[in-house]
Amino acid sequence: MAEETKLKKVVVADKEPKAEKAAKVADPVGASIDIATQQMIKRAQELGIDTVFDRAEAMKPCNIGIQGTCCKNCAMGPCRLPLTKSAGDGPDERKGLCGATANTIAARNFIRMIAGGAAAHSDHGRGVAEVFMAVAQGESHDYKIKDVNKLLAIAPHYGVETTVKTEDGQVLDRDVNEIALEVAQKALDEWGKAEGELFYLKRAPQPLYEKWKKAGVLPRNIDREIVEIMHRTHMGVDQDYKNLIKQGTRAALADGWGGSMIATDLQDVLFGTPYPLQSEANLGIMKEDHVNIIIHGHEPILSEMIVAAAQSQEMIDYAKSVGAKGIQLGGICCTGNEILQRHGVPPAGTYLQQELAIITGACDAMVVDIQCVFQNLANVAKCFHTKLITTHRIARMEQENVIHIEFDEHHAMEDAQRIVKMAIENFKNRKAEVMIPRTKATQIAGFGVESIRYHLGGTFRGDYYTLNDNIINGRIRGIAGVVGCNNARTRHNEAHITIVKELIKNDVIVLTTGCNGIACAMEGLLTPETAAVFCGPGLAEVCETVGIPPVLHMGSCVDNSRILLAATEVVKAGGLGNDICDLPAAGSAPEWMSEKAISIGQYFVASGVYTVFGVTFPTSGAPVFQNYLFNELEKIYGGKWDFEPDPIKHAHKMIAHIDKKRKALGIDKARERVLMDMADRMKLSA
């Protein structure tokens, strides 16, 4: 962005006035493609409030750190190994003080990111499992099991029987609470059991499970794999990049097929399995004449209770008593996605919009739990009346104006009511002019493995065969999982939207989670009507016939496990190979920024998915190790990494991979449409 340098005179005691550069600020249009975001960046600058967009202009990333070749794992460092132009001309002689090569350093840093991401997702899962245990034991009365069918569906994966045989040979259903208690115990054991392997690994297609077994990467328990990464990457331990990434793969699989999948399943059992519903998205969902409560973070245990409290007649009447017309809830990040997919609560924005929600002047309370929460929210809240409330014991802020209400599942509703009351009482304290952008869009969200099956075939013939059939006949070219965060180092939402539009234009159906899902909702891509405008003719026809959007929002970032299971269902339906790596499918994280994204990427790669990242890649300073990730891993798992910052090229790399898989399956040729009679349909259901 070209920017004229502004100068101001500063008088220094006993010296001549000198010119000082004004602080750099972001160009609102250059910072985001979203109109509401542009408006709020401009408002923040007018008020003299810095946001992440301005800080990204003022602070540039370290060139060596961004390449992944800075080691600070001991006090002899940091050892910085920049990649020079001549590095590829001969042997790479770069070494740290201990002799660690660029490949070793990059591999250590890479799998430490996996450890951080897997720990974040899996600790979230542990928290859900602990609440589930409390419910099963009858210790938490504010929660109950909402989806018994989901409980009965997952119980066999833990080896838990759902029926019991009597002495006279009768088969009876077991008590639901007994099943729940046994599932809860076995789920919690997944974090620390001494022997065996994770139960959910065998939910994968059999050929994939056998690959993991042969490669020696079956996770033993979740915590052990994360701890072992920290041990291996300690100074002077594992110094072989291939061996390091092998352990990184174990930990990533413990995330995707362990902690994250457990979190998703148990949340569905406790709070209800999502099914499609209509909502809205963007900052325009906030209402000036309502109490606005923004819920931000990733763990839905508290947010479920806040939704229940805010929707109670008692709280609505209380809000009206202070002059408000009601209570408007809004979400940010993945807590927002959790309450969206189960209750229709609209997301106010993505990760990079969290400060902007406060800058509207209408945010009466922002309630945060864990992950992706800016500490600068406290500084922004000081400029307004907003109550910033932290709720988790491991996620507090140092600023004095932050209120900490530690959530306890044993009196969940009491905590939630206290928070909602605090927001209501703060409504009358608004001190700044309210400016809420009018921009918002309609969306259909809440898709999952179960609802996709239903949409494809109805109550009696729901099956993934319909999807497979449309891939085989070419109406749908393939499947893309496009997920992940925003990154202030690139234009907000531009890569997300450009890539998704390019994919659906080329008849690739998109499954989305996390901030990509919110970005697509803000752009209006999550409605069935979208298909006629943006899709190729084949995908548009399928969407019109079935009544679904071309982009299916499947939940929060922890819900990427839904994409893994959907891919497994496609394999089971037949006709597209025997393993996930056979499918015409690809993955993408266009604007990634967190360690969780690296863990997600690695478990998708290890599950057989070609996975492309945008913005930057943290191994570019170690070409040999990067080549191992980008090419050699495919020989082991069937999936591999790739990197492409240009969004159009990024999308076409995915399409090229999908076409390669179609050719390998022999479905790359156009096929004539066949009008099926009843006899043909009977054969399908046989």
UniProtKB/TrEMBL annotation:
Gene3D superfamilies: 1.20.1270.30, 3.40.50.2030. Its cofactor is [4Fe-4S] cluster. [4Fe-4S] cluster 1 binds at residues 62, 70. Pfam families: Prismane. Its EC number is 1.2.7.4. InterPro entries: CO_DH_a-bundle, CODH, HCP/CODH, Prismane-like_a/b-sand, Prismane-like_sf. GO terms for biological process: generation of precursor metabolites and energy; response to hydrogen peroxide. GO terms for molecular function: 4 iron, 4 sulfur cluster binding; anaerobic carbon-monoxide dehydrogenase activity; hydroxylamine reductase activity; nickel cation binding; peroxidase activity. Keywords: 4Fe-4S, Iron, Iron-sulfur, Metal-binding, Nickel, Oxidoreductase. [4Fe-4S] cluster 2 binds at residues 71, 74, 79, 98. [Ni-4Fe-4S] cluster binds at residues 298, 334, 372, 485, 515, 557. It catalyses: CO + 2 oxidized [2Fe-2S]-[ferredoxin] + H2O = 2 reduced [2Fe-2S]-[ferredoxin] + CO2 + 2 H(+). This is Carbon monoxide dehydrogenase. It comes from Desulfatirhabdium butyrativorans.
